[in-house]
Amino acid sequence: MMVAVIGLGTFGSKTATRLFEKGAEVIAIDKKPELVEKIKDRVTHAAALDVTEERSLRGVNISDVDVAVVAIGDSSEQSIMAVTMLRKLGVGRVIARAISTLHEHILHEIGASEIIKVEEQMGEIIASKIVAPHVLQRYNFAAGYSIVEIKLGKKFEGKTLVESKIRQNYNLNIVALQKRVPYIAEDGKSAYKVEINDCPMPMDVIEADDIVVLVGSEKNFNKLFADISES
Q1: Do domains 2-116 and 126-230 have the same CATH topology?
Q2: Does residue 106 surpass a pLDDT of 90?
Q3: What's the CATH fold of domain 2-116?
């Protein structure tokens, strides 16, 4: 996969380097040479150019990318012009960062495939960590719905999935269990390895150190979080 990341501030540079680490070919672009210099060794190609100039974008073969991420966060005008140029040059999937409601609306209107609201999403993550500290990871995949990695605590320890009644009481589905399994290492010392059961059965037992992966609505997760906090 080839991805262009435009705008190399904190959000853009992190997106670019993580994509590269995950095996994508990454073209990192910013008009500030110092930001390009900082990232050049951690992506496939880095270029200092003005994304509003068609000739400059054609020079990095922008039309060949599978996805473009417009991560510009300090200028809605530059962001809008970048999305417009990318669509003009035939980039099929354009993911853009929105910094206001009006900006989000305009990005939709000019053809952005997906919108990211970084500040709003970070606010939700921080609030979730405060209210539900037992949540290890949370991924929002649709409005009002999440995939959550959680340690369920003593309330569910030692119960089978059937006995936990998580589906009946909370309308949440358990999609995986991550367990720490003890074993004896080659040096004779006790150690642990992580095993993921991605097809849990009704009689599988939830143990104290298990990380449980659940999917469902925010409303139903909040009900579960409240019950865990009280136990």
Answers
A1: no
A2: yes
A3: Rossmann fold (3.40.50)
Give the Cα separation of 24 and 9 in Å (integer): 19
The CA distance from 103 to 79, in Å, is: 9
From the list 210, 208, 189, 191, the residue with the least C-alpha distance to 200 is: 210
Q: If you count them, how many residues does the chain have?
A: 231
What is the Cα 218 distance to its own chain's centre?
17
pTM: 0.63
Task: Identify the weakest region by mean pLDDT among 38-47, 126-135, 191-200.
Answer: 126-135
Q: What is the mean pLDDT of the chain?
A: 89
**Residue given tokens 């300090």 in the structure block:** 74
Residue spans per domain, the chain: 2-116, 126-230
Superfamily of domain 126-230 in CATH is Regulator of K+ conductance, C-terminal domain (3.30.70.1450)
Strands (E), 75-187: 93-97, 114-116, 135-142, 145-150, 173-184
What is the token pair recorded at 32? 């500030």
Sequence-ordered list of residues with C-beta below 8 angstroms from that of 39, at least 6 positions apart, any chain: 8, 13, 16, 17, 28, 46
Confidence of residue 140 (pLDDT cuts 50, 70, 90): confident
